[in-house]
Amino acid sequence: MSTNTTAPLATIASLSAYEGQVVTLRGWLYNLRSSGKLLFPTFRDGSGTIQGIVPKAAVPEDVFETLKSLTLESSLVVTGLVRADSRAPSGFELDVHDVTITQRIPDDTPYPIQLKEAGVDFLMEHRHLWIRTPRQSAILRVRATIMRAAAEYFDTHDFTRTDPPILTPNACEGTSELFEMDYFGDDKAYLTQSGQLYIEATALALGKVYSFGPTFRAEKSKTRRHLTEFWMIEPEVTYLDLDGLMDLAEGFLTHIVTRVLESHRNELKVIGKDISKLEAIIAPGHFPRLSYDEAHQMLLDAHAKGLIEHPHTYGDDFGSPDETYISNQFDKPVMVHRYPAAVKAFYMQPDPNDPTKALCVDVLAPEGYGEIIGGSQRVDSYDLLKSRIEAHNLPMDAFQWYLDLRKYGSVPHSGFGMGIERCVAWICGLEHVRETIPFARTLNRIYP
RNA sequence: UCCUGAGUAGCUCAAUGGCAGAGCAUUCGGCUGUUAACCGAAGGGUUGUAGGUUCGAGUCCUACCUCAGGAGCCA
After folding, report:
1. CATH topology of domain A12-103
2. What are A238-278's pLDDT values in tens digits?
3. SS3 A57
4. I need a surface site. Which of A45, A63, A275, A310 has the fewest CB within 10 A?
C-alpha cells in the first residue's frame, strides 16, 4: 500500500465534480459488506458517505486483505476512481485502487455505536461518537447555518454585537433558579440566565445591538424542550415599539429559514424534515399576530368543541398544550402579544391602552414546538421601574445601574431573545433539543 | 418538586413463579452487486443495588439507585 500522491484530494460531498477521475479521500470506514471476492466498504469523511467497490482481482492482494478485515470507524486514506452508478444512493461509487490505514481499531475493542437502533441513554453516554452518524452530523450543520444566519441578519441590519458577561452578580428577572458559584470568598456569582439587562445598556450607547452566547438555567425542568445550558441570541433596539419588534422578529425568522432552505435540503432530507413546512414559512404573507385576549378566546372555543382538555383561565399564562393548540392553527409562526402584566417580567412596559397588559410578544413555532422567541418593550420610566423592582422584592442596590439607564436619557426600547436549540429543533423537526447541540447539558447529564 | 414508565449479553429486546434466549456487534467459515446485505458456526450473563416472601424469583413485596417522558417554569 502506498498513498497515491498524484490523485487530487476531494471530499465526498464534492465528488460529482470528479466523475471519471482518480481522487484521494481521507476519512473513516463507515460500514463494510462483502460478497466473496467483492468488498463494499462505505466511507465517510465528515461531508458525506460513499460506497467503494473492491473486486479481489482488480486490486493488490494486501489492499483487499486489509479492507476485508478492517474494523468499522477505523480511519484511513483511500484512493480510487469516481464512477457514476445508478444503483448508488448518491449516484456515485468509488472503484478503490489503494488504501492506507491511519488507525485500525483493534478487534477486541470494537466501535460501540452500531448502525442499528440504540437507546437514548446509551447514545447520550456516547455523544462524542454519536455525532459521527449522518443524521447527527446533518443536524449540527443546520445548527451552524442557523447560528450564522441569525448573526448575519443583525450584522447586515446595522446592529452592533455587544456580548454581555456570563458571570453576573444577580438574577436578571429575579425568578429563575440560577447556577451559583463562589466569587473570591465574600461574593456570590451566578451564571447568566439572560444578557438582556446588559444589552439594554449597550443599546442606549450604540442604538441597535445584539448579543449571542450561552445562557444557563438551573431549574429542574425535564422535558424535550429544556437544556440547562443553551445559546440565546438577543437583539435590543432603541426607539423601537412592540409593533416594530414583531416586524423585526418576523424578518429575522424568515431570513433564517431562507438560508437553511438555500443550503441544507440534503441535510433536511437525511433528518427527515418535511421541507414543505419550511417553504410555508417563507411563502408570501405575514406571520399571524394574535392578542392574548384573542388567543384566550380561541382556547375557550377549542375547549367547547372538545379539542383541548382544560379550559384556559383568563389571566393565566398559556400552558404547553395551549401553545401547541394555538400554533397548530397556523402554517407560520404565530405572535401572541399583550399578555397580562401579572404573569410577565417586571421590566415590561405596560400597554397605555390597558395598563393590566404588558407590551410583550411570544413567538410560537409551528407544529407544537412552543415558544422560540420571547420579547417586549421595556419600562422606560424611572419611577415605574423602581416600584416594579420593589414590588418583586428584588435587591435594589443590584439594580442601581439598571435604574441609571432610566435616569440618564431614557428612551423607549424593545428587544427579544431566541433560544437557538428550540429554533433548531423546530426547523429540523426533532423530538428533543438534546440533539440540537453538540454536547447537551440536561438535568441528569453532564457527561461527556 | 410532583406524576407515570423502564432497568436482563457490548447494543436492541424476549422469557405463565420452574433449565438464561434471539437479532445485531465481535471472531472463524461461505458467497462477484451488496445497500442497517445474506447463509453457517463460536465465544459472550452477579437479570440496576440491598433486603424479604417461596421448595424454587428475571418474574411477587419493600426500600434505594439510575435513566426516560410529562406537569410546573421557561427560550
Report:
1. OB fold (Dihydrolipoamide Acetyltransferase, E2P) (2.40.50)
2. 999 999 999 999 999 999 999 999 999 989 998 989 999 99
3. helix
4. A310
